[in-house]
Structure formats: C-alpha cells, structure tokens
Amino acid sequence: MNPIIPARKLDLAFAILVVATIITWLIGEWWEGHDVLLPVMAGMLTLTFIKCRFVILDFMALRPVKFFWRGVVIGWVLLVLGLITLAYLISLP
Prior knowledge:
With 93 residues, the protein is mainly α. The protein is 76% helix and 0% strand.
C-alpha cells in the first residue's frame, strides 16, 4: 500500500473543496436574515460532510489506513454534524 497520494488527486480534491466552500458561502449569503428552511440546512450540512471527508481522506492521508481509523474520524464528524442538526431542530419554533 502506497501512502503517497498523487498530486493530481490532491489538486482535484482541493478544487472540489474550493467550489463547495463558495457554494456554502453563497447559500449563507442568500439566506442571511431569513428563516432558513430545513432542506437548505440539510444541503449545507451535506456539503460540510463532503468537505470534511475530502480533508480527512486526502489531506490527512487516512485513505490508505485501516477502516477502523477512518471510521473513528468520520464518525466524529458525523457526531458533530448530528449535534448541530439536533441543536437546529430544537431551535425551530
């Protein structure tokens, strides 16, 4: 197993992260000061999960390691996003 990730793959992951960040920012700007709908919030959290997954697997280089360690880190991200979702749902009127 070669732990070195090719530069092209990292460049593609970086480009996807930049595009996802711009989309998230645009959604945030659009809905600023308005009641955020549940699908909008779900979309933003989905983009956040995708971005986290790219960072974890490619930039932290956890793609070639055992499933357990990837699962621990991705599980932590899912836990945090789940708690954010729970806090959002509790705050709804």
